[in-house]
Amino acid sequence: MTHRITVIGTGYLGTTHAVCMAELGFEVLGLDVDADKIASLNEGRVPFYEPDLEPLLRKHVDEGRLRLTTSYVEAAEFGDVHFICVGTPQRKGEFAADVSYVEDVIEGLAPHLRRACLIVGKSTVPVGTAAVLADRVAELAPAGSEAELSWNPEFLREGFAVEDTLKPDRLVIGVASERAEGILREVYAEQIAAGTPFLVTNFATAELAKVAANAFLATKISFINAMAELCEHAGGDVTMLADAIGYDDRIGRKFLNSGIGFGGGCLPKDIRAFMARAGELGADQALTFLREVDAINIRRRTRTVDLARECCDGTFVGKRVAVLGAAFKPNSDDVRDSPALNVAGLIQLQGAQVRVYDPKAMENASRYFPTLDYADSIVDACAGADVVLHLTEWREFRDTDPAKLGDVVAQRYIVDGRNALDMSRWEAAGWTYRGLGRAV
Ligand code: UGA
After folding, report:
1. 253 by DSSP, 3-state: which?
2. Strand-strand pairing, 117-121 and 147-151
3. Residue at a domain's end among 159, 175, 201
4. CB of 437 within 8 A of CB of 227?
5. Is residue 139 part of a domain?
6. SS3 call for 56
7. Which of 59, 261, 336, 422 is 20 to 30 A distant from 239 in Cα terms?
8. Distance of CA 387 to the CA centre of its chain
9. Which secondary structure element, helix H or strand E, spans residue 435, and what is its range?
10. Is 416 part of any domain?
11. Does 225 belong to an annotated binding site?
């Protein structure tokens, strides 16, 4: 059976999902209420940076397998399976997630449904949301449409979005009927045939699987960053410590990279929304440890500022600071909750002249953080700097020749906020290298 698929919400998740569904051979209609986004996608342009995505988008738009629209009526007529891929940002001034965009999709789509279909939520939502939305679908969908809801969380990473979508580690579906399971087995037939674990469960487990995974990843990062704090006091080296514990398969070396910590549109807001939801459910004690995970993460940013200040003789006033990196991680132009820009902003507030350079995130950085000063290149950012901060581990920064860069700075001080530079190479070129969680 060939399913026609709609993907509602063409942000990061939705664009990737729509393109990958087309790549799997489905006819796909993407929908967004933002007409500018739709216009850009229809011209084959992805409005954010994600390796491999744009050529695939262009291919499927050109070949007519992927179309884009702003019309719910069209989407309702077209789709056998409707994927919801809209955002669930943190509410202003609160920890809880704002699920209003997901609700808007149900309100926009369900009244127009005229035939049997499956609505599949992919957005990250507080546990319990799917059950409420399923009731709303039943209320709104006209009789005879046999519309039904299921939940299928997404685990893709920015920078690897296409690969993660086409070849996921696992697929998790929360369903209320065998019919829904059957449809999703057909949609994901290629991945299931390739041996991808396919876990069929209820709504709550599926919703929790997503936030539990992100909470675990955040905890792993904060754990190693807490060890970095200890190393600073005890004279240890956290990178060696991470290797030493990471060789134990039960622990694993992945996500034990210490530094200025996690940012982005997912981990920080997801752990906060998870805590808020636990509180609503009367289970807040279960997640109080996530407060500490969050606190450790934020402390690393202030520690980085302190290290940089030490390199400036104890004051930023009248000093020049170069910041290499603006994206929350490499291979992305996403600056949401970027630790790099947070650190840059804190240093600027303390009186330094801060110049930032990033290979891909300059446009977003200058749009959302307009008060910072931006440079066109590494050399431009570092000219006359009293200290250079390496805050997003792009390859371009790792490959930079420290000897040449040493010629343009005022002082050869490098703070490696990602513990990713080759310390001996920088030291050999006459730099004083400071890492986080590494003995001086
Ligand atoms: C994260 C999860 O990894 C995905 O599985 C999930 O699907 C996604 O959130 C989501 O909820 O949509 P992403 O935000 O793309 O993916 O980024 P990560 O690769 O997880 O990195 C998050 C942050 O942690 C970055 O700021 C990164 O620099 C930092 N990090 C990561 C570390 O500080 N140390 C590490 O060892 C790993």
Report:
1. coil
2. parallel
3. 201
4. yes
5. yes
6. helix
7. 336
8. 29
9. strand 432-435
10. yes
11. no
The domain spanning residue 83 has which CATH number?
3.40.50.720
Does residue 251 sit within a domain?
no
Which candidate, 357, 359, 330, 352, places its Cα nearest to that of 341? 357
Domain termination site, one of 167, 183, 201: 201
Indicate if 50 and 167 belong to the same structural domain.
yes
Active site residues: 266
Based on the fold, state whether residues 30 and 142 are members of the same structural domain: yes
Instruction: Look up the domain containing 367 and give its range.
Output: 299-435
Assembly ipTM: 0.98
Q: How far apart are CA 128 and CA 393, in angstroms?
A: 37
Atom of ligand 1 nearest to the CA of 261: 33
Residue nearest to atom 10 of ligand 1 (CA): 266
Kindly give the confidence (pLDDT) of every residue in the chain, 440 residues in length, as a single tens digit, with 9 standing for 90 and above: 568 999 999 999 999 999 999 999 999 999 999 999 999 999 999 999 998 999 999 999 999 999 999 999 999 999 999 999 999 999 999 999 999 999 999 999 999 999 899 999 999 999 999 999 999 999 999 987 889 999 999 999 999 999 999 999 999 999 999 999 999 999 999 999 999 999 999 999 999 999 999 999 999 999 999 999 999 999 999 999 999 999 999 999 999 999 999 999 999 999 999 999 999 999 999 999 999 999 999 999 999 999 999 999 999 999 999 999 999 999 999 999 999 999 999 999 999 999 999 999 999 999 999 999 999 999 999 999 999 999 999 999 999 999 999 999 999 999 999 999 999 999 999 999 999 999 76
Counted domains in the chain: 2
List all residues 6 or more positions away from 428 whose beta carbon is below 8 Å from its beta carbon: 402
Asked whether residue 72 is domain-assigned, the answer is yes
Tokens representing 223 are 């754990």
Residue nearest to atom 9 of ligand 1 (CA): 266
Query: At 399, which amino acid appears?
Result: D
> Are residue 159 and residue 22 in the same domain, yes or no?
yes
Q: CA dist 1 to 81, 166, 179, 207, 399, Å?
A: 12, 20, 14, 28, 50
pTM: 0.96
- Token look-up 């939801």 returns 277
Ligand 1 centre from 408 Cα, in Å? 34
Contact of 285 with 306, CB cutoff 8 Å:
no
Residue 329 assigned to a binding site: yes
First to last CA, the chain: 63
123 CA from centroid of ligand 1 (Å):
16
10 and 153 share one domain:
yes
